Amino acid sequence: MSHLHINRVEIAGFFVLYGQRVDCINNVWVVGTEDEVVVIDASHDAAPIIEAIAGRTVSAIAITHGHPDHLNVADALGDATGAPVLIHPDDRFFWDEFQPDRVPDGALRDGGTLSAGTHRLTVIHTPGHSPGSVCFRVDDIVFTGDTIFQGGPGATDRPRGDFPTIISSIRDRLLVLPSQTVVHPGHGPSTQIGVEEPLYRQFADLLPGSA
Ligand SMILES: [Fe+2]
């Protein structure tokens, strides 16, 4: 099995969500081998992403969730690479608002896999930040979009975000991963499941029905 290559592309931009301008820097992840990659998210500017792809075949452009800063160049990147752009159906309502001129090429579903050369990324549905938020696991690495950051969960104050739901997703789907699992989020620095776990255990204790 050939070595897994991971390129992190940091891209600054902004978006307007329901009248509020948000400036942000996104991590776009290019993951795969010397021959084939999956691109995780399509943020702000296709050019540096295409540069990181460096001529390799793109098997999929996988969108972690439908907020505009994660898909606002999905159309340009899809056109430039010819790769299918995929999003979870539960965030299709965001896609239709922010990418109205193009339809997604397919759906991400829990337990599905994406191929990146000899490696496989597994889709983990982690609703809460948005209904269709997903993470992607490959080997001892998980790409978390806006579900987990270093130091806290993603915001849940946007339409159809829900705090108990994100905490349940993290507890039931991410904290069960080995503690040494590396977390590569959609914004900011990377971390590890075991480093973040104590914080989320505190949140989970607040959930209704927790002992
Ligand atoms: Fe988001």
From TrEMBL:
Write out the GO MF terms.
hydrolase activity
Name all Metallo-beta-lactamase domain ranges: 25-187
Q: Which InterPro entries match?
A: MBL_Glyoxalase_II (IPR051453), Metallo-B-lactamas (IPR001279), RibonucZ/Hydroxyglut_hydro (IPR036866)
In which domain of life is the source organism classified?
Answer: Bacteria
The record's keywords, sorted A to Z, are:
Hydrolase
Q: What is this protein called?
A: MBL fold metallo-hydrolase
